[in-house]
Amino acid sequence: MKRGTRVCVTWHDITASLHSEDAIEPARAEVCGWIESNTKKYMRIVTCRYFTDKKLADRIVIPKGCIEKVEEI
């Protein structure tokens, strides 16, 4: 998918447990936004854009190996 496409990404995030014997697994997560960058290694999603004089945005970078699916919305 190309830059600017609005998507919903389902992915698996790291989970940690300290000083415990609990069995843990990666957390399934979902984020929606606009593709800013889509490389062989990762996808960068802009989740919030601000319309000001400054180029402000909220972003998340997800390694491709963590992505379960990407749906255009």
CATH topology: SH3 type barrels
What gap, in angstroms, lies between the N and C termini? 12 Å
How would a textbook summarize the main sheet?
Answer: 5 strands, antiparallel
Overall 3D form: globular
Number of separate domains: 1
Using brief descriptors, characterize the structure shown.
mainly beta, SH3 type barrels, 73 residues, globular, five-stranded antiparallel β-sheet
Secondary structure elements and pairings:
Blueprint: E1 6-13, E2 27-38, E3 42-49, E4 57-63, E5 67-72
Antiparallel strand pairs: 1-2, 1-5, 2-3, 3-4
Walk me through this protein's architecture.
The chain has one domain: SH3 type barrels, CATH 2.30.30. By secondary structure, it is an all-beta fold. Helices cover 0% and strands 56% of the residues. It contains no helices and five strands. It has strands at residues 6-13, 27-38, 42-49, 57-63, 67-72.
Short structural summary:
The chain has no helices and 5 strands. The protein is mainly β and 73 residues long.
